[in-house]
């Protein structure tokens, strides 16, 4: 009997192995994503957003965003609650739990508006008619109103000029501001709150609904820091300016008893932050967890106004925290794997809803009740068991120059054999976001795709990323520099462990990861293949030629290029391109407003002039990210083919 059981188990395992297939780009782009879990005030239900795969037969149509709902006690499976041929997102419960609002562009005007439906189901009703659509919104504490942010729309004069082609753009003039509005659920009449010309970034209702705490800037032009003020709802009068040192991520929250306002205070450069509290009547802001060895992503007040529930990135993991406001003591409630600050808290402060991942599975909706266990509520990825996936584990090493301990993620093929060096690809991090120990598969996360195709993939968190405290976070502005040493020391550690083959090393990345790719191949010849996607390579030109203003912060770091050209050149990979010997694939969106496509052409033309084997692919209609399904598949196929050509 025992022998029969073992044979059955053997054949079951063999069949399971045979059923699994190598991961393809099509597999990745057809995976659902989940976001924005919002727990009902009574802690019994969670509304969340599911983004469905794109339809290959409708290439012009964006992926569908729909709102689902699931009970916290798992008494019923998750089900679809609100859907249409358009987008539904940002679900928010009314304070009494009877209504669910959400954003959708399903209306005749095609703009994103607030819609309202009963929590127990039924037809949704359009609540707003903002000319340029609604950006975000929040219920009033009593549930009688909703406040929302909406950018100024085109005036009749604007439309007339456009029709007559008399619509010249006067740069740094004629701004369209994001303003704060309210709308009552009884009369359905919108009322403008911010009558003065300011750009509202974030806001919070006062407990009595008579005022707002606003984070704002003087113009819509990108600024690293905002001001925080209290404004009266009835007439928009600015009652008190509290601080001018609010981080661009803001997180403005007014505590239930009205005595304090929570926000993210800016670090010296403006790039990092920490939690802080300030009285609505004014006074010095008080930092909270300023020296926490990670990065706080978001914080919400508990009902007693004495505690916060927060989410923080620490190294390659995420922690859910309960913070004592008085002492600043933080207690870890749960240790999870997550890629963003998607969480919410019930009105009693005891039950949390959040997105959680597993190393071998994308995000699902989970819950946690203080004193209980983590509970997975959805299983939305039925195809995952049939894919041959990599093994994910955390790794650490030290920078050999200064001893800084560093952390990262390693993804190895499913049949990885210890002691046998593999072709190894470094995927440099995007922006300042740390790699995490969860799911690493999407159109821009290539680790699972590459591991399934036989590569070891190294995801290093060099200094400058989130999850390391604000001081190390700020070092991201030392582009290249010590971060390059961090990465190379990590590679050497893998070589010493006979994991990475020193003769078959590749590197690649998107945005800041693209920059680090170009920096690496212009400062060492150890890489045999590189993929640079949306990479900034010339900061002097980035400062002057950008279209979204986000690169103006370079002036606060290095002064202007006119006075500090040498500093800009010293951090720009274009000025080291003559050192490059690595075959390089360059990928870029044609209409990228963050890293203009001229950056890609500049680097590509330099490589061609130097005789370095290189190719460049441009994706029409795409910006800084790639949205169209066919383009996402094409990009990943080119990445695979490039590494296959030079590393195997």
Task: Write structural notes for this entry.
The chain is an alpha+beta fold. Among the domains are: 128-163 and 176-288, Prolyl oligopeptidase, N-terminal domain (Methylamine Dehydrogenase, Chain H, 7 Propeller), CATH 2.130.10.120; 387-537 and 572-647, Alpha/Beta hydrolase fold, catalytic domain (Rossmann fold), CATH 3.40.50.1820. 19% of the residues lie in helices and 35% in strands. The chain contains twelve helices and 38 strands. It has an eight-stranded mixed sheet, sandwiched between helices. The model is unreliable at 1-15 (pLDDT under 50).
Q: Can you count the helices?
A: 12
The name of the CATH superfamily of the domain at 387-537 and 572-647 reads Alpha/Beta hydrolase fold, catalytic domain
- How far apart lie the N and C ends? 47 Å
Which stretches are poorly predicted, pLDDT < 50 over at least 5 residues? 1-15
| Percentage of β-strand residues | 35-45%
Task: Fill in the CATH topology of the domain at 387-537 and 572-647.
Answer: Rossmann fold
The whole-number mean of residue pLDDT values reads 93
Outline the biggest β-sheet: 8 strands, mixed
CATH structural class of the domain at 387-537 and 572-647: Alpha Beta
Report the C-alpha radius of gyration, rounded: 25 Å
Number of strands: 38
CATH architecture of the domain at 387-537 and 572-647: 3-Layer(aba) Sandwich
Question: Which structural class fits the helix and strand makeup?
Answer: alpha+beta
Helix content: 10-25%
- Major beta sheet, strand line-up: 31-32-34-33-35-36-37-38
Shape: globular
């Amino acid at each position: 009997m025992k022998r029969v059981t073992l044979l059955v188990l053997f054949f079951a395992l063999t069949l399971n192995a045979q059923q699994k297939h190598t991961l393809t780009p099509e597999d990745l782009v057809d995976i659902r994503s989940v976001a924005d879990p919002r727990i009902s005030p009574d802690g019994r239900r969670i509304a969340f957003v599911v983004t469905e795969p794109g339809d290959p037969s409708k290439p012009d149509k964006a992926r569908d965003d729909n709102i689902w709902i699931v009970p916290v006690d798992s008494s019923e499976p998750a089900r679809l609650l609100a859907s249409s041929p358009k987008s539904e997102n940002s679900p928010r419960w009314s304070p009494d739990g009877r209504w669910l609002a959400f954003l959708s562009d399903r209306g005749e005007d095609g703009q994103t508006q607030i819609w309202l439906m009963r929590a127990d189901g039924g037809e949704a009703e359009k609540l707003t008619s903002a000319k340029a659509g609604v950006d975000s919104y929040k219920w009033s504490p009593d549930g009688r109103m909703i406040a929302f942010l909406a950018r100024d729309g085109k005036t009749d004069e604007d439309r007339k000029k456009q029709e007559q082609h008399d619509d010249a753009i006067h740069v740094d003039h004629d701004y369209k501001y994001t303003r704060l509005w309210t709308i009552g659920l009884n009369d359905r009449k919108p009322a403008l709150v911010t009558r003065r010309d300011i750009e509202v970034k974030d806001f919070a209702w006062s407990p009595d609904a008579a005022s707002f705490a606003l984070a704002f800037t003087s113009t819509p032009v990108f600024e690293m820091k905002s001001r925080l003020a209290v404004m009266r709802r009835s007439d928009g009068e600015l009652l008190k300016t509290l601080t001018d040192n609010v981080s661009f991520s803001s997180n403005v929250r007014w505590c239930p008893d009205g005595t304090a306002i929570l926000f993210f205070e800016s670090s010296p450069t403006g790039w990092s932050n920490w939690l802080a509290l300030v009285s609505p009547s004014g006074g010095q802001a008080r930092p909270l967890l300023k020296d926490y060895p990670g990065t706080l992503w978001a914080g919400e007040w508990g009902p007693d106004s004495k505690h916060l529930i927060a989410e923080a990135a620490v190294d390659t993991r995420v922690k859910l925290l309960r913070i004592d406001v008085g002492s600043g003591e933080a207690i870890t409630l749960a240790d999870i794997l997550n890629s963003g600050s998607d969480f919410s808290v019930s009105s009693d402060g005891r039950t949390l809803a959040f997105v959680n991942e597993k190393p071998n599975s994308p995000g699902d909706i989970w819950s946690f009740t203080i004193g209980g266990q983590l509970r997975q509520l959805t299983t939305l990825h039925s195809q995952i068991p049939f894919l041959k996936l990599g093994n994910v584990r955390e790794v650490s090493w030290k920078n050999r120059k200064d001893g800084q301990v560093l952390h990262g993620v390693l993804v190895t093929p499913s049949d990885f054999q210890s002691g046998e060096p593999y072709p190894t690809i470094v995927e440099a991090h995007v922006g300042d976001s740390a790699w995490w120990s969860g799911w690493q598969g999407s159109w821009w996360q290539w680790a699972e795709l590459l591991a399934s195709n036989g590569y070891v993939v190294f995801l290093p968190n060099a200094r400058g990323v989130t999850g390391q405290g604000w001081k190390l976070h700020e070092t991201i502005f030392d582009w290249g520099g010590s971060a390059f040493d961090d990465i190379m020391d990590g590679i050497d550690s893998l070589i010493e462990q006979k994991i990475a083959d020193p003769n078959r090393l590749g590197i690649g990345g998107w945005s800041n990861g693209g920059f680090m790719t170009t920096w690496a191949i212009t400062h060492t010849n150890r890489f045999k293949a590189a993929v640079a996607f949306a990479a900034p390579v010339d900061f002097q030109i980035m400062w002057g030629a950008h279209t979204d203003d986000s690169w103006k912060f370079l002036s606060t770091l290095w002064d202007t290029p006119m006075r500090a050209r040498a500093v800009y050149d010293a951090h720009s990979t274009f000025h080291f391109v003559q050192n490059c010997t690595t075959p390089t694939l360059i990928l870029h969106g044609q209409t990228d407003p963050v890293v203009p496509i001229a950056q890609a052409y500049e680097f590509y033309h330099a490589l061609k002039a130097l005789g370095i084997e290189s190719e460049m692919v441009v994706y029409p209609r795409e910006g800084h990210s790639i949205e169209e399904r066919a383009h996402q598949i094409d990009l990943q196929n080119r990445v695979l083919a490039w590494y296959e050509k030079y590393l195997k």
